[in-house]
Amino acid sequence: MDLADISRPVREDLAAVEEGLKSVGKVSSPGLSELLGYTLKGGGKRARPILALLCGRLCGAPGERVVPMAVAAELTHLATLVHDDTIDKSPVRWSRPTPNTLWGEEQAVLLGDYLFARAGELTASTDNLRVIKLLPETLMIITGGEIAQSRSAFQLDQTRAQYLQRVSSKTAALFTLATASGAILAGAREEWVQALSAYGHNFGIAFQIVDDILDFIGTEEEMGKPVGSDLAHGTLTLPAMLLMEQYPQDNPVTKLFRERGGAEYVRQAVELVRGSSIIDQCFDVAAEYRDQACLGLQGLPDNEYRQSLYDLADFIITRRK
Amino acid sequence: MDLADISRPVREDLAAVEEGLKSVGKVSSPGLSELLGYTLKGGGKRARPILALLCGRLCGAPGERVVPMAVAAELTHLATLVHDDTIDKSPVRWSRPTPNTLWGEEQAVLLGDYLFARAGELTASTDNLRVIKLLPETLMIITGGEIAQSRSAFQLDQTRAQYLQRVSSKTAALFTLATASGAILAGAREEWVQALSAYGHNFGIAFQIVDDILDFIGTEEEMGKPVGSDLAHGTLTLPAMLLMEQYPQDNPVTKLFRERGGAEYVRQAVELVRGSSIIDQCFDVAAEYRDQACLGLQGLPDNEYRQSLYDLADFIITRRK
Fold first, then answer.
1. Domain coordinates of chain A in residue numbers?
2. What is the CATH number of domain B3-318?
3. Does B155 touch chain A (CB under 8 A)?
4. What is the pTM of this model?
5. What was the ipTM of the complex prediction?
6. Which of A 62-91 lie inside 8 A of B, CB atoms?
7. A221, A92 contact by CB (below 8 A)
């Protein structure tokens, strides 16, 4: 099953989200219009809008009620990517140059700020105070998590709990916003809102663990960015942690972090992880979170939207990009 | 009259704003807490909170109702400064190192994002949908204006209308947010909201023109940053425009912009402007906007808060930092 199959029950709403994203790019300033047009046409999977729409529909909302918030969730995601690529000086994403490469850091930082603002504007347009409050709270969690990650770069003494905390902040928080806001805008009963929030949280952790796995086992063509990027930036992810546990005396990750860089160490670490059982172990951890996400859906209405949430949780575990 | 005299009618509310800013820095993450503590203790004049408080009180709001929004306006201002200093690679502001100098660009970008988010959270806490919608709209104007400024760096063919448009976006919009939100939160009649919005707009333009003048005539000690910074960054401001008009054949600004840099040209331009009538002409333009701002206050209640708005408009014209 691919993403188009899974999102079929909300395909019309999703088309409206694409239209919404396109209209974000329609601004009078030619410079800004160019930046937005490029950024909004990237290669994203639109996972956050799909989740918001599925959760909204699952709880009985008419699709159009959730569309602006689904657009806002995607814009928030894009804004964080634009800033991440800028501060990481990443040259490539989705197999094409990043905004910071094409227009420089200055305009990339401002572009990210604009996208955050536009996300806020769309969220405010829902007139729903609970959803409106969720967005900045989520952004505080995300940026707080990213600051923690930045401060922990090339630090060897990190626990698995700290890793999960980081993943929870930098990735799961936005998925939680997407699922929770869908349910809230549908006027769902509190029990359902909580269940879908928990789904988004566990889904997000599984999603990020798979992302961290793909950074080791994916190809540059599939991912649209270099293999081993996390390690190269000094970000300790689950596969690298397990590698250090398996070879406590001598391993390329420890060397890389002590010397704060070294492409050869990155290559060695990637090779060592690929040839070990570490990837299977990481998939097992991701699958636990997938299971946890799905378990929480049991009390919700048994409809095609819920089925898509199950399928989506399976999909993100098996995806290769 | 100094700023303490002018803001005396709202001194208690202003103390609450300072408390509010302090509590923004109280977060569990030690890294983030350090970044926030430093940023919130800068040398700002708190002009935006003062305006929000005066406008709120003028329209009859109890002070505490406007305090969160006054804090939000200041945080938004600080967020834009942190990002501006980062993308300009400015080493110093308020006579001390900038966050990008102390902690690097990565953490400075994230710090700015966090401050934007916190501003959004505080604004949402007002539960006032009109004010909630004003914040992201204002941020879109500000960042849109900054992108335009960034794209026009070192461009010689700029009109005075374009300059005013830039000033209006990058500075006046946030002052308008401050004054309008004070009035809106007070539940003021629409006429007063419009009058105070217009005051904020004209005040903001006068404020920025004076800022642009001080970049030529101030001292590094007074301003806490180097003289001629705007020119060095390729930003064409009113004094530089008038210099080009006065010496159309040959002037250091044209040379600086054609060669995209040159500290000696900056020095020459500053000297030439200081020795001419250009500064007086610029002050005349700023004074027109000050007058325009004050004119709009006539229909408002004649109380101590309105008097402070008059005094504040005079103050920003005569300030030296």
1. 3-318
2. 1.10.600.10
3. no
4. 0.95
5. 0.94
6. 83, 86-88
7. no
